[in-house]
Amino acid sequence: MSDGWVTVCKTGDVGREDLIQVEVGDTTLIVVHTKDGRMCALASECTHGRANLADGFVHGSTIECPKHNGRFDAITGAPRATPARIALEVFETQVMGGDVQVRLQGQSSHGRREA
Amino acid sequence: MRDYTVGGSEEALAQANGLVDADWYRPHVDRSVLKTLVTSRSRIPVIHLAIWVVLLVVTGWWANTAWGSAWALPAFLAYGTLYGSTSDARWHEFGHRTAFRRAWTNDVVYSVASFMTFREPESWRWSHARHHSDTIVVGRDPEIAFPRPTSRLRVFAEFFGLLSARNELVKIARNMVGRPAAPQRNYQPADTLRKSQMWSWVFFLILVFVAVWCAMIGSVKPAMFIGFPSVYGKWLLMAYGITQHAGLSEDVLDHRMNTRTVHMNAIHRFLYLNMNYHLEHHIFPNVPYDALPRLHELVKDQLPPAHRTIRDAWREAFDAMARQRADQSYSATVHLPRSAA
């Protein structure tokens, strides 16, 4: 670990167009491997309903919630289809020597849940 | 009698009992297999949609040419059923955005099907999301079709879509003037109500246009093609819809206890877009309809036995609803497999 970067998994742990759940301390994240090969880390809880996006699916670079089919952009966290309307929190991610590393200071101010 | 109003007195009870937005039972399915079912898109939905549109056009042409003759009866029965009943399955599948890959293409079909089945699309999107969060949870689920006790009159009226049409007319009227009812405001975010208002005006103007057209030509014929089929063509939707949840448990967190899967033949499955696999759909709403038969094979050992026929499901549902008239706590018995109970 350096400069706040934490290794959360190996690149090979996440298949192309798939995601896995990882834990960093008390924080639960999803690591998404997009169709074009990017690795992204986001909050694991859907901002719409109480659903764990780790049970969701990836289409290209879009995450689909397993509960209500809401969609989020895996790179920006932005909602792409209702009922998702609030962006997911996105975390800085880098790949170093086959390790996927995440820095927990959120890039965005999004990530609150709907009331 | 329980208060089925969304946001009514039962909502606090549901909340206190941990039934709101809760975790539900999920059978085990290997993730890689599930991922394949969810992410693989076949051409079947495109082909099915094309066939459905062709059937609408052909039966519509038949009804038009048969107008005034005895053949008009079967012709309008066919056209109206396709329009008023089978549009519901399209509304549902495209509402979940699981038929096509792109969200907007699903949304186009969803919007058209919403008008055909006469549901204002924005509010129903949120209503249906709630139905999936809190399936048959009293005070939370806006889509409980058979509140207990279910009167025979209510069931009969719904075969003609009378109650749902009346309710939707009221909802549309309230949306048009920006005064949605409290239950709608309970399940629909406030900042989406403007969309409901817009869609309500669109629906209203289409209906006004059809009414003016009828008045100008002195015939009800245009309304028999646009508008009225949402009512006179509703019977098949009701026949299918009864199989989904009627007579089963309320206030549970296991879809196996409140949702049925029913075997249907290929024609019914085309008309209904495989929603006979309703239990599998509720547990895994991301799985496209054309993959539901494969999903059923994967999980059936963990689910109650599927009903063999529509009639078999009706028998159970109508029997349970009859008993509920005397004992509202009664629910049809579900036999869970021992290994997955």
Structural features:
heterodimer, A: 115 residues, mainly beta, Rieske Iron-sulfur Protein, six-stranded antiparallel sheet, four-stranded antiparallel sheet, B: 341 residues, mainly alpha, globular
Tell me what the structure shows.
Chain A has strands spanning 5-10, 18-24, 27-33, 39-43, 57-59, 62-64, 71-73, 79-81, 90-96, 99-106. Chain A is mainly beta and 115 residues long. Chain A has a single domain (5-106), classed as 3-layer Sandwich (Rieske Iron-sulfur Protein), CATH 2.102.10. Chain A is globular. The model of chain A has no long low-confidence stretch (mean pLDDT 88). With 341 residues, chain B is mainly α. Chain B has one domain (9-340). In chain B, α9 packs across α11 (193-217) and α14 (235-245) packs across α19 (310-326). The longest helix of chain B has 25 residues, at 193-217. The mean pLDDT of chain B is 95. At the A-B interface, β5 of A face α2 and α7 of B.
Number of strands of chain B: 0
Number of strands of chain A: 10
Strand content of chain B: under 5%
Overall domain count of chain B: 1
Chain pair sharing the greatest interface? A-B, 21 and 21 residues
The assigned structural class of chain B equals mainly alpha
Distance between the termini of chain A: 36 Å
Order of helices and strands of chain B: HHHHHHHHHHHHHHHHHHH
- Regions of chain B with pLDDT < 50 over 5+ consecutive residues? none
Q: From the structure provided, what is the oligomeric state, counting identical versus distinct chains?
A: heterodimer
Biggest sheet of chain B, open or closed, and with what strands and sense? none
CATH architecture of chain A: 3-layer Sandwich
- Binned, the helix content of chain A reads under 10%
The tally of helices of chain A reads: 0
Radius of gyration of chain A: 13 Å
CATH-defined superfamily of chain A: Rieske [2Fe-2S] iron-sulphur domain
Rough outline of chain A: globular
Counting helices, strands and paired strands, the structural category of chain A is mainly beta
By DSSP (H or I, 4+ residues per run), the number of helices of chain B equals 19
β-strand percent of chain A reads: over 45%
